[in-house]
Amino acid sequence: MDLISYSIEVKYMTTYEIYDSRETSKMCEEGVECMSYNKLTPEQERVIVHKATEAPFTGEYDNFYEDGTFICQRCNAPLFSSKSKFNAGCGWPSFDESFPNAIKRVLDPDGIRTEIECTNCGAHLGHEFHGEGLTNKNTRDCVNSLSIRFMPKGKELPKIIHG
Ligand SMILES: [Zn+2]
Question: Is residue 75 among the annotated active site residues?
Answer without folding.
Answer: no
